[in-house]
Fold this protein.
Amino acid sequence: MNALVEFEANKLADLFSQGDILSIHMFMDTMSISFDVQDVLFTRISALRQPDPIKIAQIIESYGASLIHEQMRY
């Protein structure tokens, strides 16, 4: 998992724990996720008992939402 996915997962975990639905969708917009995929991600993350960043990162990666390869180096 790359640093971008880790950041996205942590941010989404925070937003889900706050229950801020508008901010969740706005953040997903900044992640350049299409609306149909946003709905799927929202549903899958909402189904988690707790907003665990590791599980959220796995969900993000399973939908290919991050465009940066995890092995990318400077």
About this structure: DSSP finds four helices and no strands in the chain. The chain has one domain: 3-72.
